[in-house]
Design brief:
This protein is mostly helical. The protein has a domain of about 40 residues. The protein contains 3 helices and no strands.
Length: about 90
Amino acid sequence: MSLKEALAGVKQGQAEPESVQVPQTTKPPEKKKAATVRTTGKSSDDDYERLTVYVLKTTKRDAGRKWEDATGKDMSDLVQQLLTKYLGS
């Protein structure tokens, strides 16, 4: 007797069968993911150091948008370029 038939019998007021075979579901074996190679960013590169500066919100927003639109790089690249130019290197 299937589970569906047993449930239909219970709904109709019939006694429950002594044993109902419920098929066991097993999960398929999980595939191991290949190791992904992560590129490290500036925050984990020992050649870089964190710098905090204060600028007006509008200046940061406008400069950041213009720089990213023109180059696709982040603000730290702009600051690095400007400081290097300032130092004459």
